[in-house]
Amino acid sequence: MTLSLPPVQRLLPVAAAALATIAAALPAAHASSHREAPFITTAPKVDGTDFYMFSSYEPGRTGFVTLIANYQPLQAPYGGPNYFSMDPNALYEIHVDNNGDAKEDISFQFRFKNALKGITLPIGGKNVAIPLIQAGGVTEPNAAALNVNETFTVDVVRGDRRGGMKSAITNATGGSATFNKPVDNIGMKTIPDYAAYAAKHVYSVNIPGCSQPAKLFVGQRKEAFAVNLGTIFDLVNAPVAVITDPALINAVPNTIDDANITSLAMEVHRSCLTQGSETVIGGWTTASLRQGSLLNPTPAKGHQTTGVPGGAWVQVSRLGMPLVNEVVIGLPDKDRFNSSKPKDDGQFADYVTNPTLPALLEIALNLPGTAPKNLPRTDLVTTFLTGIKNVNQPANVVASEMLRLNTATAPTAEAAQHRLGLAGGDAAGFPNGRRPKDDVVDISLVAVMGGLCMLNGTTNALNLGTECKPSNVPLGMTSLKLHDAVDQAVVPLLPGFPYLSTPMPGSR
Q: Which of 67, 72, 71, 70 is nearest to 107 (CA)?
């Protein structure tokens, strides 16, 4: 194992630690990367919110890996009349590192286009353009009543994301490289059966260089996260008695239960993602915009004609493990983190070696001395940054922040999945990848407060090192009881691809 970035080895652990600690302190802490950096608040269409990567557990899909990249947070179902189309001037990407060197080996690049049909109505002898994106009921892809039809393409790039070999992913039926994206769930009058309508946009696709057909879906989904955002950022305004009582694991309502998200989902056979005998892959998502844009003071008629972008691609969003940028990276460097690559994570070492969040939480919760004292937290380094040996650690790993999955680990059937993932004895759960039901905040909380150290002491299965001793873990076994009072596992899901549930309608 090569650790070429020693300081960075503590980045994700502290990230998880920080996010977990914040979760531990509130009756709801399940927000992932929503509005986490100053610039991204000005560009919500390219705000990456969650990344899921797991061995598919749908019956009959053994051997496949599902990757889901979510963008555009906190979508109100009634957010018309334009709703939440993707940015045609942006580049959305899912990256895979399959040799542990913290560099992308495979990238899936998504581009979008919004075509205005210009539907008009005869008013007083004149044909006048309608103000809505629909003029009637919608049941089929690219329905005649859709005034704006959104399409997308996906390229696979092997090697460097900008200089590697690029090939188009094509529809297994007909061979087209352009796919229709379903319009958002405007409401039940416009789209009476959204589930059936969206299902018509699940494609079987061919990926160049891959012998197995893959699945592809891009469209609006119900937000699969559970969170009480206000409580978290109000200095963790929650009673400690609630967050340490296992009986109150679902005591607080999910404040974004009626929100939607936009998902870029793929299901790819593991043989198309791995390299040689290495079964562990790392993954993260990004979004990029052109370096410059000129605003047209007199836009021409059409759709989205105000700006003229130009220049090189500039990465403005990055997401691997949840909550890193939100609660670990200091405010001055949040935009810098969003523009960075895993191979360069050493630049954020100060936020890892000297984290501020545990101290802030001790003040906010009036619980001095509760943070683990084993600094630097090498137990968390192993768990969250390099992967756990014999679980999801590549043979030759460069420490870096990304989600890691051992594709050789058999998936756990949905009914048998443990909400605490690996900490709950479920080998196919977070941090070995991330499934929609994994309660990543609670899992990270267990880890940050020394829970994995305790498990390591009793089973010696995690190989977390000699720093896991009682004097360094003030909460001891009570750390295994900490939770955020919002149960991720109760969020409704589909039994198979694309797993995330039908989005909430604008009206019923």
A: 67
Beta pairing partners, 268: 65
pLDDT single digits (tens) 381-422: 777 778 888 899 999 999 899 999 999 999 999 999 999 898
Question: What separation in angstroms does the CA of 383 have from each of 85, 134, 480?
Answer: 37, 49, 16
As a whole number of angstroms, the distance between CA 363 and CA 450 comes to 20
Q: How would you classify the pairing of strands 64-75 and 48-55?
A: antiparallel
DSSP letter (8 states) at residue 338: H
pLDDT beyond 60 at 4: no
Three-class SS of residue 8? helix
19 — pLDDT class (breaks 50, 70, 90): very low
440 contacts: CB under 8 Å, gap ≥ 6: 30, 32, 322, 323, 421, 430, 434, 488
User: Which two tokens mark 286?
Assistant: 């990004």
- Yes or no: say if 342 and 400 are a contact pair by the CB < 8 Å rule: yes
Cα separation, 151 vs 280, whole angstroms: 33
Tell me how far apart the alpha carbons of residues 31 and 43 are, in angstroms, rounded to a whole number.
Answer: 18
Q: pLDDT value at position 456?
A: 55
CB 383 within 8 A of CB 393: no
- Calculate the CA dihedral of residues 446, 451, 456, 461 and round it to 10 degrees: -20
Q: Which of 279, 381, 391 is nearest to 8 (CA)?
A: 381
Would the pTM of this model clear 0.70, i.e. be above it? yes
* Distances 181 to 76, 199, 219, 371, 406 between C-alpha atoms, Å: 19, 11, 6, 47, 31
**Domain residue extents for the chain:** 1-33+231-253+323-489, 38-113+149-223+259-321
- Dist CA 235 CA 213 (whole Å): 48
**Residue 434 in contact with residue 411, Cβ under 8 Å?**
no
What pLDDT score does 468 carry?
60
pLDDT confidence tier of residue 24, bands split at 50, 70 and 90: very low
Length of the chain: 508
Q: What is the pLDDT of residue 480?
A: 62
